[in-house]
Amino acid sequence: MAGTAATVFRNVRPYGAERPVDLFAVEGVLAERLPDGAEPVVVEGGGRIALPTLVDAHIHPDKTAWGEPWYSRRPAGSLPEYVRGDVDLHRHQRTPLAERAHRLLAHAVASGTRAVRAHVDVAPAYGLAGVTGLAEARERLAGALDVQLVAFPQHGVRRTPGTGELLAEAAASGLIDAVGGIDPAGFDGGADGGGPAQLDLVFDLAERHGLRLDVHLHDQGARGLDPLRDIAARTKAAGLAGRVVVSHAFCVPELAGDRLAELADHLAEAGVGLTTVAPSAHQVLPFRELQARGVRVGLGSDGVRDSWSPYGNADMLHRAHLLGWTTDARTDQELTDCFALAADGGADLLDLPRVTLRPGSPADFMLLAGECLPQVVVDLPPRDLVVRAGRVVARDGRHLG
Ligand SMILES: [Zn+2]
User: Fold this and answer.
1) What's the pLDDT score for residue 225?
2) What is the mean pLDDT of the chain?
3) Which structural domains are found in the chain, ordered by start?
4) Cβ contacts of residue 379 below 8 Å, gap of 6+?
5) Which among 55, 57, 53, 128 has a CA at the least distance from the CA of 98?
6) Distance from the CA of 141 to the center of ligand 1, in angstroms?
7) Ligand 1: distance of its center to the CA of 387 in Å?
8) ∠84-86-91 over CA atoms, to 5°?
9) Are 349 and 275 contacting, i.e. CB atoms less than 8 angstroms apart?
10) How many angstroms from the chain centroid is the CA of residue 247?
11) What pLDDT is attached to residue 191?
12) Which of 28, 50, 121, 161 has a CB 3.0–4.6 Å from the CB of 12, allowing a cystine?
């Protein structure tokens, strides 16, 4: 069929299978065979492993200093201190935000990421610079990376008057996919700066503009659990099941047994998903227990080389490795589960089709030299080739932009 976009990836091993096969990509999707008369592009896989590309369900590209001169951080231990550090770093960057975000996200593509949910700060200190900057980066990466934008009130809505108006402006701009939130009971609950109550405002915006919600929740104990239950109740009442996510949710790993099961059932029934960035053994979400009870869980990078932390690299295979490290994954199944959270967990959370590498699957995958999937999660081989919708979008660590 003349004009059909078809590519054959010869001699690759899906998920590390022993016997190499050929993968046929036709119009962005994997197919059983090529259509009659197709004249495909041929890419030699050299026996490499083919794995689904990954979904970064939580990243902050607007804050990054990735690729910039080294930034020396001062000690910080509380949210207000971190927030001041963000503003300070923002003011000291010489490279425009859109350029920095693009550089980081292009690196994510080259590392094997197919989609991200990007939280961008919206506050009077920046106006909508993060939203417009990320929209520009998204435009430049169209076809290689899906970018969902969250307008994130990092400085608080109640705490920082003027933020609510900016969120409303962002919601009406058509540039964002979701409205964010932060610690409605702690950081943005107690210190009353005169702004509106946060959850009232963000649920209202989500309903009026048909947007999703993704709320940062660092608070532990009742200050975390009460808002989490409140978010679940509001999600049900507003008919927003499947469109609301709570990020970090450090109050959840504190639970075990019946209390964890009861909360998981509540979140699953309300259609509230969770994301973790696997920051530590005591803060990582118990994702297997949550998923077993029907809760969607995604994995993300969080901040990458920003004012909060010198660490991070927007490499989701490395994040799956860190998830294995923090959860003490040892068996092949446990290591495979960590990879699956980065691949399928994120896809479920962002409402993307899962990549199965079977006919009908999106032709989104990466090729790397290795032995088997668990070994890849441990050894982190370079991503030799990254394919999006059947097209090679990165090679040898470089985005082909
Ligand atoms: Zn975050």
Assistant:
1) 97
2) 96
3) 6-52+355-399 (2.30.40.10), 54-349 (3.20.20.140)
4) 370
5) 128
6) 22
7) 28
8) 100
9) yes
10) 10
11) 58
12) 50
Q: What is the DSSP string of 167-211?
A: HHHHHHTT--SEEEEE-TTTTTTSS--SPPPHHHHHHHHHHHHT-
Distance 153 CA to ligand 1 centre (A): 11
If you measure from the C-alpha of residue 400 to the centroid of ligand 1, how many angstroms do you get, rounded to a whole number?
28
237 CA distance to ligand 1 middle (Å): 26
| Structure token pair of residue 353 | 């089709």
In percent, the amount of the chain with pLDDT more than 70 equals 98
- 302 CA distance to ligand 1 middle (Å): 5
Find the 175 Cα to ligand 1 centroid distance in Å. 19
Whole-number Å distance, alpha carbon 58 to ligand 1 midpoint, is: 6
Examine the pLDDT at 190 and tell me if it is beyond 80. no
The Å distance, Cα 43 to ligand 1 centre, comes to: 38
Q: What is the pLDDT of residue 192?
A: 60
Q: Which residue has the tokens 């190499």?
A: 20
CA of 247 to the centre of ligand 1 (A): 7
